[in-house]
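1st attempt posting a full record on here, be nice pls
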Amino acid sequence: MPSIEAGATGPLTTSFPIRLEFAQKAFIVSGGRLLLVRKSASDPFHPGRWEVPGGRLEVGDDLDLDDHIRREVWEEVGLKIEPGAPFHLWQWFMPDRRAPGGGQVRVVAAARRCRAVTLDVSLENQDSGDHLDRCAWVALPEVGAYDLIPDLRPVMRAFLLAPG
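the predicted structure (as tokens):
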């Protein structure tokens, strides 16, 4: 069986079960700066790499997709936002830590442009699974200098090239 690296796109054929999850990422711009968050050294998949706030849908708790992205941003960076329209869809595969004996999670994600209602970021609301240790408002021309999670790179290119 071919191995599938954490976060890598991969084949749909495997001898292990594949569980499907949905995630959203918030691209929040204020004053020509994009909010990025950095994964801590304790992150099991992408330590020290940067991404944007967001995460997986909690099916039983999130009322709708707008509620979902608002909750994720509040938990990760303490901001209130106004969700905008999705501008990009993508997927990645990762090991399923809940499946006994192995398995994978196929995460299908939507990237959304969001407007910040508040601007004072804080990592105090995150849960232990977020593994974030820093956030930064980065000037749009400087985003390319940050070591992004690999699967986020094409999404970031789409964001930076799209009008908006």
